Amino acid sequence: MEHEVPTVEWAGDGLRLLDQTVLPGRVEHVVVRDVAALVDAIRRLVVRGAPALGVAGAFGVAVAMRQAAREGWDRAALDEAITRVREARPTAVNLAAGVDRVRPLVDEGAGAVLAAAQALLDEDVRGNRAIGAAGADWILGRLGDRPLRVLTHCNAGALATAGWGTALGVVRALHGRGRVEMVYVDETRPLLQGSRLTAWELARAGIPCAVQADGAAPSTILRGLADVAVIGADRIAANGDTANKIGSLGVALACADAGIPLVVAAPWSTVDLALPDGRGVPIEERPAAEILAWNGVPTAPEGVAAHNPAFDVTPARLVTALVTETGPLEVSAGETPLTAEGAAKGAARGAARPTG
Ligand SMILES: CSC[C@H]1O[C@H](OP(=O)(O)O)[C@H](O)[C@@H]1O
User: Fold this and answer.
1) Residue 50 annotated as binding site
2) Are 315 and 339 contained in the same domain?
């Protein structure tokens, strides 16, 4: 049975978020009604994942407007608060894009902003279903119509989006066709989005999976235990260079060496056409404590330093296929650069009513 729990939704007077910091042990929600609480929720990964951040950013404009009305802010204070939401995390382009999409509607009132944010949420779910189907089509066409062993990194599932997921959307589509033998789930240190979140989603969906240490991924791939790796993205440059959770580059290098496909599943809203290549991707550096302890228990000697980049950039030459809502692009084979025309088609596909 499919048991999706809404990740982000408007709840009358605030933004209701599934608190992903307490999964899988507890399923709890928080409702944020002010900008400081929303920024904190984004920075602590209560809500996380590029598309989900885009939706949270869009609704965040309405949160700021409601707070401005309650507290009597002037326009400058409102604009500053909206910018704080927009800049809460730097790497996923979707957060800023979500804010920018609805910000021009501020003068039309909170109702217009909420309607636009809800439209973005609905488009994301439709787009993810399209990504899932297109990704499954490409993978089965490439590898043969048989049950497959998939490797994933981090969480690019329903929890990272408004629903269904991107990379896990592909896995869900394959599973729906009876074409998943096993999913190797990288635990994804330091915040364990794989073991805590991806394994939770797959178990609830009845999809067979095994959690592994991140360090096991290259040998799993080079020992021939996986047929394909499918990952999400946080920002894709115009040439196809892809920023994703730290450790994705290692998976990509192993896939290239082993000759298995690396599939990036992402909506066009994750493509940053203003960025010619991956050198300009802002890489979020996160707190040392995430590396040096778990649940407050030290895992390293006191006083040592930590290096905690939250993302890395996989060069386009290692991306076998980028699957968006408009279909696959065989990036490493040169089907780039990504174009504004493609982005427009993607937006139209997400906005299109489902045909059945
Ligand atoms: C579908 S985008 C998911 C993407 O976001 C994750 O980062 P974080 O958990 O820090 O928000 C990770 O990079 C996933 O691949």
Assistant:
1) yes
2) yes
234 annotated active-site: yes
Same domain, 106 and 183: no
Query: What pLDDT score was predicted for residue 236?
Result: 97
The strand pairing partners of 231, in sequence order, are: 264
Range of the domain at 16: 8-122
Q: What CATH number is associated with residue 201?
A: 3.40.50.10470
Q: How far apart are CA 236 and CA 244, in angstroms?
A: 9
- pLDDT over 80 at 184, yes or no: yes
What is the distance in A from the centroid of ligand 1 to the CA of 92?
8
**Alpha helix locations (H) across 144-247?**
167-176, 193, 199-204, 217-222
CB-CB contact of 106 with 33 (8 Å): no
Map tokens 């946080």 to a residue: 234
Q: Which of 95, 76, 38, 110 shows the shortest CA–CA distance to 234?
A: 95
pTM for this entry: 0.95
Residue range 236-249: mean pLDDT, rounded? 97
> Which run of H or of E encompasses 340?
helix 340-351
User: Measured between alpha carbons, how far is 58 from 213 in angstroms, rounded to an integer?
Assistant: 35
Cβ neighbour number for residue 2 with a 10 Å cutoff: 12
What are the residues facing 341 on neighbouring strands?
Answer: none
Q: Is the peptide bond before 190 cis (omega within 30 degrees of 0)?
A: yes
* Residues 15 and 38: beta-carbon distance below 8 Å: yes
Question: What atom of ligand 1 comes closest to residue 244's alpha carbon?
Answer: 13
Q: What is the CATH number of the domain that holds 110?
A: 1.20.120.420
